[in-house]
Amino acid sequence: MAQHNHSTTTPTGRFAGLRALVTGGTSGLGLALVKEFAQRGAHVAFVARGRERVERIARMPAAHGIVGDIAAKEDIHPIVVQALGELGGLDVLVNNASDLGPTPLALLGDTDCEDLERALATNLVGPFRLTKALLGALSASAREGRGGVVLNISSDAAINAYPAWGAYGASKAALHHLSRIWDAELASEGIRVLSADPGDMDTPMHALAIPDADPSTLKRPGVAAHELIELIAETLAARRVPTETAHAVGGLA
Amino acid sequence: MIAAARPVQRPSTAKLLSVDGHGALVHLARDRFVDLLRRGDLVIANDAATLPASLRGIHDRTGAEIEVRLAGWPTAGDVTHFAAVVFGAGDYRTRTEHRPAPPLLVAGDRLTLGPLAATLIGTLGHSRLVSIEFDGSPDCIWAGIARHGHPIQYAHIAEPLALWDVWTVVAGPPVAFEPPSAGFVLSWRAIERLHERGIGFETITHAAGISSTGDEELDRRLPLAEPYTIPNATAAAIQATHDRGGSIVAIGTTVVRALEHAAQGDGIVRAGHGVATQRIDSATTLRVVDAIITGTHEPGTSHHDLLGAFATTETLQRIDRELTVRDYRTHEFGDSVFIERVNRDAQKDVPYSYNC
Predict the structure, then answer these.
(1) pLDDT digit string (tens) for A157-190?
(2) pTM (predicted TM-score)
(3) What residue of B is the nearest CA neighbor of A143?
(4) Which CATH architecture has domain A22-41+51-244?
(5) Quick one: A251 exposed, middle or buried, by C-beta within 10 A (0-12, 13-18, 19+)?
(6) Is residue A162 flagged as an active site residue?
């Protein structure tokens, strides 16, 4: 209902009026994504747990900060009310917020159940709940020919069995598979659900996982954000035909 | 009818009473509603998400406990201003007609509603219907409402409702004050079945207002003016459906209100924003909507009056009797009716065949 004057996206990667939500948006890759969306002309809302950082980053023009924990069931709908209220709808969701599991990283046999549960809550159940609560808005966006893209941030640990990455790897593997199933299920709605590995980046989370890594060997989060947003732009440009045309009219022809 | 007292959107036992354009009545399991529709029809739902519009707090001047129920948008999408109904102490567990009155409300009064603060701008023709303005930026107000508010609810449901109880699967823009509950029939599987059967599915956004205030004088003014938005895709799909002779099937009274309001000029639904102000009843000639799926509304309500635009008084009385005799459940989580309007085009008078 909000009478925002949003125009549609263009296939060139400029996002005039695109409406995007990024979780974990106050550091690392998430912050780089928020900046990149804003620089390309999108209206972007972001979620993070720390009020002080959220308020500081929300001073950026066209950025709306939301304080919340996507691992907490009770936080999901308040986050969605704020995002949809502030943006007037949603075209792109990036589930970026992630939890490493135990830190320092631990062998599975040494991993506390609570650390595994927290990793699953943040990396799998939270993105599931948030995406589910936003499906109505995303499908409306797709029907209107605007967008309807969910990007779940994955990891090579979702594919490869790295010792000591058990909680994180298992949760990201589950998220990767959830993405593939949802992408198949939502084909008829015109919504794409993508899973992408941004590579090893110089971020606070990487420093937590591998404290002695040489930052010069790691990808800058801004570079990864640029690549991911190019992926989103390509997906929007190639978006599926809305259902009315694909099914009802086409079926009658 | 029996009050549906549990917040379950799609109980496996949900029933549907179907009434065709000739007044023939059939009972069936509600999850089979897709079987009532034909290839080339278009189903339109209201995708408004329900606001947590019940805000508890204090009337600063008297220190009295109050409950403010947000009830109307003076300007669509402007979260700083609302029309609201004010109740005295207590909560939904007391029936609205038994709730104590709030203190005398006068322009300039300050209200503290959890993290939110508001100024009472004035009353709107009734001592409890007021215009309020929140302090702060839109983002702060959205955060305050999202964090502090609860869905408006009534005494027939004992447990406190959460937003996920009252959001339909297609819920998007948070602009409704009470759920567009006819949409509880929808699941993603049902929408997928519509696609499979060559039936279109589109949405409008209509800021459904409150259904009851517990005050007869106020209730007579319901529904209040309700802003709506019709997307380009929906307007185009309605035109395409008309062109191919298909039926427009509205899920809920709010969809009927929005589409018929948008078509008031020349009968054509155009994309854009509007404010539905009209009442729809037996005197209304429907220009867009051919059939409605809605709840089991009780006689005497504005929702029941709206059904008079679809069916004759005689048919509505037969429906009411059937719903009572067959123990249909009422209220927002209750059973449903599907009513085709009379006088549909002759080409659409194809008899249905289904088992029940």
Answers:
(1) 999 999 999 999 999 999 999 999 999 999 999 9
(2) 0.93
(3) B233
(4) 3-Layer(aba) Sandwich (3.40)
(5) middle
(6) no
